[in-house]
Amino acid sequence: MDCAFCEIVAGERPAHVVLDDGPTVAFLDTRPLFKGHVLLVPRTHYETLSDLPADLVGPFFTGAQRLAGAMETALGAAGSFVAVNNRISQSVPHLHTHVVPRNRKDGLRGFFWPRTKYDSDDEARDYAARLRDALG
């Protein structure tokens, strides 16, 4: 099975990793809604939230909770948007939660998700480092 997220977890594909706490790994989205947009995945491949074993639900969403807080601390975001797609609109068939920094009047409306990109790999590396630092 070819899975881009499994390759990132295994270190076989480059990514700006923000969190690696054992059961979960989080890394910057390469096409972020806003800079600092993170994808949180379980280390083990599960396609959807329904497939995630009950004993991993808590650790998985604890990761999302920590990332949401880190966005406010590290990026000065006013809040965050946290979302999971199951099959529909799931571009990679590996469970992942989007944790996106938000600010008032940032332009995000409903489910219209305009994508952006980092100006450079150095800028992406800086965002990842700031989030990692805020996570401790």
Task: Indicate the topology.
Layout (H helix, E strand, L loop, with lengths): L3 H6 L7 E4 L3 E5 L9 E5 L11 H22 L3 E6 L12 E6 L18 H15 L1
Antiparallel strand pairs: 1-2, 2-3, 3-5, 4-5
Describe the structure.
The chain is α+β, with helices and mostly antiparallel strands and 136 residues long. It has a single domain, classed as HIT-like (HIT family, subunit A, 2-Layer Sandwich), CATH 3.30.428. It contains 3 helices and 5 strands; from the N terminus they run αβββαββα. It has helices at 4-9, 54-75, 121-135; strands at residues 17-20, 24-28, 38-42, 79-84, 97-102. Strands 1-2-3-5-4 form a 5-stranded antiparallel beta sheet. Strand 1 and strand 2 form a beta hairpin. The longest helix has 22 residues, at 54-75. The radius of gyration is 14 Å and the shape is globular.
Short recap of the structure:
With 136 residues, this protein is of the alpha+beta class. The protein is 32% helix and 19% strand.
For this entry, give a set of tags.
136 residues, alpha+beta, HIT family, subunit A, 5-stranded antiparallel beta sheet, globular
SSE succession = HEEEHEEH
Mean pLDDT: 93
Number of domains: 1
Strand order of the largest sheet: 1-2-3-5-4
How much strand content do the residues show?
Answer: 15-25%
Say which CATH homologous superfamily is assigned.
Answer: HIT-like
Categorize the overall geometry. globular
Number of helices: 3
Number of strands: 5
- The CATH class is Alpha Beta
